[in-house]
Structure formats: structure tokens, C-alpha cells
Amino acid sequence: MRRRPNYLAGLGSLVWLVLVGFPLYVLLISTFRTRSSYSSEGPLSFPEHLTLQNYVDDFSNGFGQDFLNTVIVTVSVVAIVLLVVPPLAYAIVRARGRTISTVFRVFLLGLAIPAQAVIVPMFYVISKAGLYDQLIGIILPTAAFCLPVCTLVLTGAMRDITNELYEAMAMDGASPWRVFWQLVVPLSKGGLSSIVVFSALQAWNGFLFPLILTQSESTKVITLGLYNFQTEHGVDVPGLLSAVVLSMLPIFIVYLFARRALVQGLMGVGGK
Amino acid sequence: MSALSSVSASGRRTRTGRRSGVGVTRPGLVWAVPATVFFLLFAILPLVLVAVLSFTSWDGVDAPTFNGLDNWTKLLHDPVMTQSIWLTLVLTVAGVVVQTPVSILLGVWSAGYQRNRAVLSAIFFVPLLLSATAISVVWRAILDPNFGVPSQMQWLFGDGNLMGSQSGAIAVLTFVGMWQWTPMHALLYQGGARAIPQVLYQAAAIDGAGKFRQFLHITLPQLRNTMITSMILMLVGGLTTFDTVLILTQGGPGTDTTNSAYYMYQQAFKSFDFGSGSAIALVLVVVATLISLAVVRFSGYDKMRSTSEGL
Amino acid sequence: MKRRAFAVALGLSLATVGVTACSSGSSPAGGSNTIHVLVYGDASNKVEKQIVETFNKTSKVKVVLDTIPGADYQSKLNTIINTPQAPDIFFNWGGGSIQPYVKADLLLPLDDMIASDPGLKSNFLASVFNTAVIDGKSYGIPMRGTQPVLLFNNKKVLADAGLSVPKTWDELLNAVTVLKGKGVTPFALGGGDQWPTLMWYEYVFDRVAGPELFQKALSGDKSAWESPESKKALGMLKQLIDAGAFGSNFDSVKFTDGGSPALLAKGRAAFELMGSWAYATQQDANPDFAKNDLGYSNFPSVPGGKGDPADVVGNTNNFYSVLKKTKHPQEAAAFLKLMYSDEFVKAQLAIGNLPTTTNTEQFLSTSASPEYSKYQYDLVKAAPSFQLSWDQAYPPAATTPIHTAVQQFFSGKLDVDGFIKAMQALPAS
């Protein structure tokens, strides 16, 4: 059924369009102008000459390495999450007893542990373990902090699998292992794609762990690269903003082609 | 998401459905072991350690040594700490107050299936694609008093000294927080609004209620659960605001925007007083856990039986 | 059945760790035949790289250079200094910046090295070398350039306003009035970074009270902060702030991101008080301005003040310190010797740094900007006192409180008494 326009919300949406569109305009247009054009003409005017030099410069300033590191971190975090969460969620949904519900509660409590709150001991643990300034030192805590939300999402998905299906499998004498692979995994694809997107976003956008737990050029991820760029050459706004655009490019591509899965994953981000 | 505020039928089915028959094999606890061990090691152990460290003196160079309640008594008498708690509250409340109405309006608006709304929504939610770091960096550049937008819009910004006063800096942080988070909350409300049965509106229309009254008497009450979820997320998020503070204001001017999360960072990683840093962190943990318990209780997460319920 | 599932799960988790361990990029201080040298990451790294290459050509033990971007250098150093990842040799500012490490017994006194090669001490200007002497022992070898704080100006702006470089405090006040009338901000100030603001205190306190007041305060005599000289200096700063000498939005401006240098270069401000590195910053960001219109002078004198107008403040130099745990002290010594080599001096001069070795003078003409190098060299050589920046003279724990107090006094949140109290509350060295 078609509804008549809602003027009140329509007005709000117009204001929001300006609030979002305006900075995005500045963000995009600045990346195509020269540094001197930015500082003399200001960010609002349309530049006389457009240039791609800022993007080229980003890569000669090591953006490629940052990008590669971020990809490694992201892929590893997703891999860990995919390896440990589905069996856990399966156990939570299907195993019996008090222990498993206690385990679930522990993960639920983890939902609201902010990464900031444990960063000091995390730094202690990581440096004692000799993992300081290595990508693995970012990967492990980042993955650990993805677990609560991923577990919650995936158990939710797995609970939608009906008992009848389990019983049918049991008739065939299937082991939990077979049930897991032939029933549970195929039927929770939606949940699985959500946790992939969620954990990938957490890893891609993560800032605090890299900030505290790494220091070298060779282990720098994109977010830290942006931060360093801003603290060191913040006045080179076109260079900085083109790096920002490059950093969001992969997510933007996912947004274009897999909007639903991305949005599902993003909602999980809000959960943190 | 569409199942947001309605406990879905499929969920109920499992609960009331026949108990599993004899012979159904169930996974053992071992299936939960890898994730649990991993989580204990990298999330729960640090959590325990933060409590331990808060009773130590540690400069990051020597080994930590116990110093009893020293950090805690120091914090009690530290005006910056007191102020940081107050600032955390102000930033959190300001976030909730500003973001909630905007997200509701935006979410309800975008819940409509009209084509123009779908197109505009795609633009509206772009901030979601940027990391907190990127967002802060962009706004820092845009708001630069001499070379950013304020220099070209003096009628609005004056001398552009936004980060130079407490009220200005808080306003900037609140605004950037709104820019960052509103799309996510709007999506929550979009899901909530789409789940409201159309029958309710049809009935109201027959009774002669206008759009505004429908919004007030049907939409808002129906969104109650969404509001709770959204506000709790805002509370936890506001409590731990860090990236934006670090990049936009560095807790300044002076200590005027040094909230607890940033003060913890500063004490630990700038002044190398890891003991005090841990004590502040522990305060954060306790408050966050209380909120977390509230989440579990209010939303019934642990009893939840369906896919994206409550998300 | 259960056992199998467990084995699989265990296998999976081990595989995960294995995979990620392999894919992680860098490895920590690895081979035993290397010396790790950790430096502050910035434009000067060019020279450090060159010196390392020179060293590695002849040495069996190779030096590996690691850099950390500026803003986080001190905190990252502190993070690793007592871990297995600690470097063998690291960059620092001498003084308070290494004191905690000396106290924790992490640093190697260099006196034995100096005994076997006296050149490690005698080839450096004594006033600079002494910054890294703690409790009578030497802990650092100067390794970059000296960085006095200078009053930079935009010659064109001054000419347009009919002003000359101020030599006295009154001329400076006059310049403020004239420039304000012209709609130009007299002094660019990166108040957002806080340490540029501190430079104003360092000079005004020196000119009014001489270097002794701060030394007294640093050594633990807190009454120094409430002395009449201290109050007079604060009063003068207050007068300057109230006259609008720094404009009104300085707390939103930074030096580190290039904000305040741009104000000077674009003629929106007439002066900037900044370390000598600002010259290189301008050359890099605004080459035309650096070439044609960038002027510099020493801080003006204050009539009736106790401080010698030739005194300077700033970073005396940066230093290399050696950790006790290094496995290669002899090679480390050989590496440090390069810090007074002709190659080192020439390379530093070529990028605008001013080394503090005794042979620097003979190479001054090879500098990137000989006139500027000579000016600085003469200034530093003639200075009766070279005060290390306050935030470097105190141990790191005091840095944040100092910066906060300095900022709050400028923004008006602290009054004179409030500032004095804040400084008296600093952790003693």
C-alpha cells in the first residue's frame, strides 16, 4: 500500500541530505585538487584543474603497504571467527547442560566490554607474549572482540533450524560432525555472511589495537596510516582525504554489490 | 531486522515444539572449547588483569609492583578524573538526546518503499562506510579554522575557534558523533518501522487520524523496543568515545574534553602511569558491564530464539 | 565421536594460529648479528639511513634502522624499552627524557667507551654533550642537529607594515599593535599542539629571571614558581595574550599538521616562535616563501630582566643512548663514532640540520642554507645558556601536566596563581 508523504520526516531527511552531502562534496572534490588550490581557494569552490596526483602520491607514501597489512589482518580475523564461532554456536544451540549456558552468558557479558577498558592489560599480555608490533598481535585481540556479537548473531540464525530436520538426520544415524556440515552450516548461511561482514568491518576499521600494539611502518594498517598522516602532514588535506577515499573504497564496493549483507554486518558494528 | 520488535513466530515454534526425540545426537562441549579458550585468553584474562593492575604502580619499564589503594585514592582526589566522568556523562547524554530524534525521523522516513526514498537512503547511509578514524580525520580537516570550511563561511563560524573553547569542542564532538552514528540507528528504526503492521495505520485512518497523530500514537509506541536497543547502544558507545576525542580534540583545550576513556589512554600511554590508567579502565568496565546486564535483561537476548531479533 | 570432534577443533584452532603467524608481516629483533637502532621518524631519517649504510659496508654486525612517527615516539619507546623487542640504540632528547631509564638501570654508561675513544666526548660541544650526562655519567652521544627556538618572521608582511624585526619587548608590543591594525595576526601559534605555546614561557622566563629560576624549580625548589620574577613573566605573557597577539583561534591550530607554518607562509601571520626545524618545514611545504620571505631572529630582550639576551632555549640536540642488554657494545661504539665523522656532519648540514661537533664550523659553507646554518651556529656557540625545553627537562610523567597548564593559562582558564599551583604540583625529577 502506498502511503502519502510524511512531511515532518521529509523535512528532517532534507536537512540530513545537506549534512551528509556537504561534507561528502568537500571530501570528494578536495581529493581531485592540488594542495595549493586547496589552501588558496578554500575547500568549497570547484577547482579549475582536476588532478589524480593525490592518489598517486598516497601510493608512493606507502599506502599500498598499509592496504596489504589491513587485508592480511582482515582476512585472518575473518578466518579465526569462521573457524571458532560456528562450532561454538552449534554447541550453544544443540548441546545440553548448565555449562554451555554459562559459556553463552560469558560471551553475552563480553558484548559490552569496551576494547578501551582492557587495552592496558592487552598491551601487557601482547608484549609479554612477544607479539608486540606484529600483525598477529592485532589479529588475535581483534578477533576475540568480534566473538560476542558473532556468537549472538549465529546462534540466532541456528535456532531457526527446526527440530524435525535434526531428527531426520538422526534417523540416518548422522554424527554431530555430519549434522554440522550437512544441516547446520548450509541452513545458517545468512548468519554466516553477517558474521563475515561484521568481523571484516571490525578488522578493517579497527584503530585502538593497531594504535597501541604496533609501531613500525611494516605493520601499519590503514586507519593508523590515516592517523599518522593527519598528525604529521595534516595540512596536506587533498592527500589526506584521498587516502580516506581509498580506505573506504573496498567497503563501498561491497555496499554496491552486497548491500543487504553489509547492512546486516553493520548493525552488528553498532552492537559494539 | 524486520523481526526486530516482534518475537518471531519461528522462534516460538522451537520453544513450544516437541522436545527432541530419542536418538538425536548432540554436539559435546568440546565444540565450544576453541572459541571459549580463545575468548578467555584475549578478553577475559585482560579483564582480570586490569583489576589486578589497578592496584599496582607500573611505568611500563620496570615490573608492576603492588601499591594497594594508592591509584584509587589518587583518582578520588584528581579533579581531572572527576571532570572526565562528568564529561563522559555530558557527551553520552548529548549523543542520546541529539541522535535519537534524528534517527527516528530518518528511520521512519526511509522505511517507506517509495523510489525516491530508496535512492536518497543510499546516500544517507554513506557515513556508515567510513571508519571512526576516517570520519574524525575528515571533520578535523573540514573544520580547520584557517584552511577549512570556517574560513569560507565566517557568517556561520566566526573566527572558527571551534576547538578552542569547551562548549565548542563538546559541540563538535557531539555533532561528529551524530554524523557517525545516526545512519546506524536510523537503520534500526527503519527495520522497526517496517515491522509495524499496516492494519494499525488503516484502522487509525478510518478513525480520521492524520499523519502526525498516527506517528505519535502508533509509530512511536510501536518503536518502543527499538528505542531501548538503540539507546543502550548509544550509552555504551558514548561511554567509550575515544577515537573522535583523540583525533579531533586530544582531550583539549586543556583538559576540557578529556573524557574517561581518553584520560585512561593519556594516563597509561602518555604519562606512563599504567596503574592509574587501569583503575580508570576498571571503572569503565564496571559501568559497561552494568549496562551489558541491562541489555541482557531488557532485551531478553539470552532467551532469544530467532535470527536478527533485537538487532 | 567426541574425541574426534575435539581433535578436529584443536586442529582447526592450531591451523588458524599457524596461518596467521605465517602471514603476519614483520618479525621482531631477530638475528643476533644485528643492532637495532630506533629513531624518531621524520625528514631527518635520510641521514640516519645514509650513516647506517656506511656502517654496514664495513661491519659484520649489521645495523637495522627502525623509525616511529613523531607524535608517538616517546610512548612507543617507553612501551618496548624493557621488552625483548627493545632496540640496542635509541634516539632521545637527553635530560629528563632518559632519566626513568637510567633509574631503571636499563642504559649503558658510555664512560668506558669514552675512555677507549676520548673523541666520543671531545669532538662535541660541551654544553650540548652535558645534556645527556646524568649523575656524573654520560648516557648519550649527540646525533642530529641542535635546535634552538627562533622567532621566525614573514619579511614581506613586516615590510608592508613598515616594521623591522623587534629587538626589545617594547618593540615587540608595538609590532603587535601595528599588525593588529592591519588585520594580520601578529604571532602564529600552534596551540593545539601545546608545546609551541610552552616556548613562549621558556623565553620570557629566561629573559626576565635568567636560566637559574627554572633550574631551581627543576631541582625541586617549588618556591621558584611563586617568586616575583615568575609572576612578572606570567604578567607579561598575559599582557601579550590579552592584546590579541596570538589571535583568538590558536587553540584550534597546530604546528605538527602544518597549520601554523601555513599561516606564516601565506602572510596571515607575521611571526612564529618555533624550533629551528621550522626552516626545513617551510622549505618542504612552502619552498618559495622559504627562499624569499622567511626571516628569523633571536628572541627580543626584556629591559631590566636578569636573563642574557643571548641565551637560547630549545632542544640542545638529540642523542643516541645504548641499552645495557645490547650484545654488541663494541660495534655500538663503532657506530656512535660515526656521529662526529665528516660524512655525518656534511650530510646533516645538507638537509639543514646543524650538528654540534667541533668540526661543524669548517663545513658550514656546504650547508643547504649556509647563511641560516652560520646564524644558528654562532647563536648557539655564543649563548651563555642553552635551556633544554621544559617538557624534555622534566621526566615524561610531567609532560602532560606541563602542557595542560601552559594551554590553560593562555586560554584564560588558569590565572597566575592557578598556573603557579599547577607547576608546583609537577612530579619532581
How would you characterize the overall build of this protein?
The complex is a heterotrimer of chains A (272), B (311) and C (429). Chain A has helices at 7-31, 35-41, 53-60, 63-94, 98-110, 119-128, 135-158, 163-171, 176-187, 189-205, 208-213, 222-233, 237-257, 259-270. In chain A, 57% of the residues are buried. Chain A has two domains: 7-53; 61-270, Orthogonal Bundle (MetI-like fold). Chain A is mostly helical. In chain A, helix 1 (7-31) packs across helix 13 (237-257). Chain B has helices at residues 9-16, 33-53, 70-76, 79-111, 115-124, 132-142, 154-157, 166-194, 198-206, 211-222, 224-239, 243-249, 260-270, 274-299, and strands at residues 56-57, 65-66. Helices cover 66% and strands 1% of the residues of chain B. In chain B, helix 8 runs antiparallel to helix 12. In chain B, strand 1 and strand 2 (65-66) form a beta hairpin. Chain C is built from 22 helices and 13 strands. Chain C has helices at 2-23, 45-58, 73-80, 99-103, 111-116, 119-122, 126-129, 155-160, 169-181, 195-209, 212-218, 228-242, 259-265, 278-285, 287-292, 329-337, 342-350, 360-363, 370-382, 390-393, 399-411, 416-424, and strands spanning 34-41, 62-69, 89-92, 133-134, 137-138, 141-142, 147-154, 185-188, 269-275, 294-297, 312-315, 319-322, 386-388. Classes of the chains: A mainly alpha (272), B mainly alpha (311), C alpha/beta (429). Chains in contact: A-B, A-C, B-C. At the A-B interface, helix 1, helix 4, helix 5, helix 6 and helix 7 of A face helix 1, helix 2, helix 4, helix 5 and helix 6 of B.
